[in-house]
């Protein structure tokens, strides 16, 4: 199976080791993974701010880079949601282009969704020890319906104890432009979420979207917490015993 990895802007710029973890997971599952070097943003920031034309340009770039693959995998519910949900209807004047884009969007999957729903995986070969708590990102949960998949994979790892928060589905306050436009509200939401995280006494906070993780890690550190590790789900699932949790 030939799989294209859409790295995402945040992973590429802020935490590229997530991308390497995704490659490790996919290759261990028997996939042939390629990372197109010309890929760029999915177009979500501009599109959500009202710049529909930038969304159209990015959608065409995505189509050019990934149309030849059997599947596209994305380590982000947010970017996957943009592609699967919001690319629809971008080209009413060009139905042939829209049809190609729709077919590609249907073959585009968030990482854990791909592992569980497409490949049928129930466990992974990575090894990890510790108590983890999982935060459901808004886009992954509400646009894509991702809930049980990442938990199934995490719980299958012998050294992992999954400790749920009281409100794992509540927004962390990031929301892209939301945290910029409504900073005071977003800050309080992040603090409330971090207090929920800390109430679990988990060693590691895990999520499938780096935007959420960066937001929550910053809040935890400002609250004086330096103990709780913050990791993308791919980093935990692909973890090799002895890796440092940085």
Describe this structure in words.
The protein is α/β, with parallel strands linked by helices and 246 residues long. It is 50% helix and 13% strand. The protein has helices at 9-14, 17-28, 44-48, 52-66, 77-86, 95-106, 111-118, 138-143, 148-155, 177-181, 183-199, 210-222, 233-237; strands at residues 2-5, 32-34, 71-74, 108-110, 130-135, 160-162, 204-207, 229-232. The strands form two sheets. The chain has a four-stranded parallel β-sheet, sandwiched between helices. Strands 6-5-7-8 form a four-stranded parallel β-sheet, sandwiched between helices. The longest helix has 17 residues, at 183-199. The radius of gyration is 18 Å and the shape is globular. It starts with a strand and ends in a 9-residue tail after the last helix.
Give the tags.
Rossmann fold, alpha/beta, 2 domains, 246 residues, 13% strand, four-stranded parallel β-sheet, 13 helices
Helix amount, in percent?
A: 40-55%
Mean of residue pLDDT values: 94
Catalogue the unreliable spans: none
CATH class of the largest domain: Alpha Beta
Distance between the termini: 32 Å
Order of helices and strands: EHHEHHEHHEHEHHEHHEHEH
List the helices and strands and how they pair.
Elements: E1 2-5, H1 9-14, H2 17-28, E2 32-34, H3 44-48, H4 52-66, E3 71-74, H5 77-86, H6 95-106, E4 108-110, H7 111-118, E5 130-135, H8 138-143, H9 148-155, E6 160-162, H10 177-181, H11 183-199, E7 204-207, H12 210-222, E8 229-232, H13 233-237
Parallel strand pairs: 1-2, 1-3, 3-4, 5-6, 5-7, 7-8
């Amino acid at each position: 199976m030939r799989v294209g990895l859409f790295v995402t802007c945040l992973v590429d710029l802020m935490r590229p080791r997530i991308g390497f973890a995704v490659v490790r997971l996919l290759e261990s599952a028997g996939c042939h993974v390629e990372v197109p070097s010309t890929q760029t943003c999915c177009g979500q920031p501009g599109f959500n701010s009202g710049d529909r034309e930038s969304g159209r340009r990015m959608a065409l770039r995505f189509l050019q880079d990934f149309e030849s693959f059997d599947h596209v995998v994305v380590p982000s519910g947010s970017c996957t949601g943009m592609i699967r949900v919001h690319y629809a209807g971008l080209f009413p004047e060009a139905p042939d282009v829209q049809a190609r884009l729709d077919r590609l969007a249907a073959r585009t999957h968030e990482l854990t969704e791909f592992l569980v729903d497409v490949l049928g995986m129930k466990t992974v070969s990575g090894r990890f020890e510790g108590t983890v708590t999982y935060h459901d990102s808004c886009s992954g949960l509400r646009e894509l319906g991702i809930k049980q998949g990442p938990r199934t994979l995490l719980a299958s790892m012998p050294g992992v104890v999954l400790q749920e928060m009281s409100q794992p589905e509540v927004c962390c306050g990031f929301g892209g432009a939301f945290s910029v436009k409504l900073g005071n509200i977003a800050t309080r939401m992040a603090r409330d979420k971090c207090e929920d995280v800390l109430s679990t006494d988990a060693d590691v906070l895990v999520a499938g979207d780096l935007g959420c993780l960066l937001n929550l890690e910053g809040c935890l550190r400002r609250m004086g917490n330096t103990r709780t590790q913050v990791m993308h789900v791919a980093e935990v699932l692909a973890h090799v015993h002895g890796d440092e949790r940085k």
